Amino acid sequence: MASHPPPADRLLRLDNQLCFALYSASLAMTKLYKPLLSELGLTYPQYLAMLVLWERDGLTVSELGERLFLDSGTLTPLLKRLEAAGLIARIRALDDERRVHVTLTAAGRKLKARAAKVPGCIVEAVQCPLPDIVSLTRQVQALRERLTS
């Protein structure tokens, strides 16, 4: 029996769109993070940048942008605000002034201890078993890789 494509009206329903499911879940997740990050004095994008720097301090702006999937036009203002808050320093490379390294300050390193509670709060709020969260994270990462390859 040959399968027939679904009618266009069903294909074009909002709730049948993977893009909308991802978008609306992202909005809900960002809303969940907001009060936790406010206590740290961070926005969600700033938190993501700090996570990367806590993993590997001293990255260049371009390396940080690659890791976060952000261009320098988006990343630079974010880094300027983190620098103004005293959490990072931006240092031009001596051998090439176009390269700027981002390093944590003592305050930025200290903030990591306060941020350590955030993932546990998120896991609790999501009300999903940790193995399911890990699996879903890997599936979304695999999707991102397929979309960006």
TrEMBL record:
Q: Which PANTHER family match?
A: ORGANIC HYDROPEROXIDE RESISTANCE TRANSCRIPTIONAL REGULATOR (PTHR33164:SF5), TRANSCRIPTIONAL REGULATOR, MARR FAMILY (PTHR33164)
The protein depicted here goes by the name MarR family winged helix-turn-helix transcriptional regulator
Where does this protein come from, organism-wise? Answer: Caenimonas terrae
Keyword Membrane found: no
Q: What is its main location?
A: cytoplasm
Q: Which residues form the HTH marR-type domain?
A: 15-149
Q: Which InterPro entries is this protein grouped with?
A: HTH_MarR-typ (IPR000835), MarR/SlyA-like (IPR039422), Transc_reg_Sar_Rot_HTH (IPR055166), WH-like_DNA-bd_sf (IPR036388), WH_DNA-bd_sf (IPR036390)
One Pfam match, given by its short name, reads: Staph_reg_Sar_Rot
Keywords, A to Z? Cytoplasm, DNA-binding, Transcription, Transcription regulation
